[in-house]
Amino acid sequence: MTADADVLARALSADAPLTWVLTGDSITHGLVHTQGGRTYAEHLHEIVRGELGRVHDAVIDTAISGWRIVQILEDFDRRVATWRPQVVTLMIGTNDCSDAGVFPVIAPEDFARSLTAFVQRVRALGAIPVLQTPPAVDVPNAPERGRIAAFAQAIREVAAAEDTILVDQFARYAALGGSEVPWGLMNDPFHPNAAGHEALALELATVLGLDPIGSRVLPKLRADVAAARLD
Question: Which helix (H) or strand (E) element contains residue 172?
Fold first, then answer.
């Protein structure tokens, strides 16, 4: 357990309300690819404010489709600071790893430096940073994102160096897919579908220690993910 995980556990056992900010790119933004289903941010909202009964908490999704870490840093005040959060999660890397399109190609080490700056700015707010690796990509059908494993590894290394909570969605997707992309959880080569967002929510809740007594949500998510893997 990291020091941040201990701080979060104590905060969750106290009555003081928390503000949770989830930021990142299109996967956290959650448009289109769930086809009307809930995103992982929305599942987190139900677990925290519904099942845990933390009705004074706020769960805010500030992600924007297509963004990279450098854009989030440039817009940090609006994306993060203005909400005065206690917990900030970041899932990023799916666009950063791309070597095609309008953005310049960046190296994993430059990405890692930007991630480190993000963590330090979150800590300066007095908030707990939570880093998430992105889910796996079907590289044969998205070859421009063939470097994603290196970017996931960069996130792991920053999390270790900065002693942050790490939610390794990339590794979880690999496990669910038997080291391949779990197509039952995907809407296209790099966007999760509704079941994929359920898998993301499960892993996030597990790592953060969110396990409400008598939960109805978590068993349903587990069942849906298991069924989707058979598709």
Answer: helix 169-176
CA dist 94 to 35, 98, 168, 191, 206, Å? Answer: 20, 7, 14, 9, 23
Please determine, for residue 140, whether its predicted confidence score (pLDDT) is greater than 90.
Answer: no
What number is the average pLDDT over the span 158-187? 88
Asked whether 61 and 27 are in contact (CB, 8 A), the reply is: no
Least confident of 39-48, 63-72, 156-165, 188-197: 188-197
Amino acid at the residue 71: Q
Q: Where do the structural domains in the chain lie, given as residue ranges?
A: 3-228
Query: What mean pLDDT is predicted for residues 140-160?
Result: 90
Write the burial class of residue 27 (CB in 10 Å: 0-12 exposed, 13-18 middle, 19+ buried): buried
Using only C-alpha atoms, the chain has a radius of gyration, in whole angstroms, of 17
Homologous superfamily (CATH) of 3-228 is SGNH hydrolase (3.40.50.1110)
Contact in structure between 230 and 72 (CB atoms under 8 Å): no
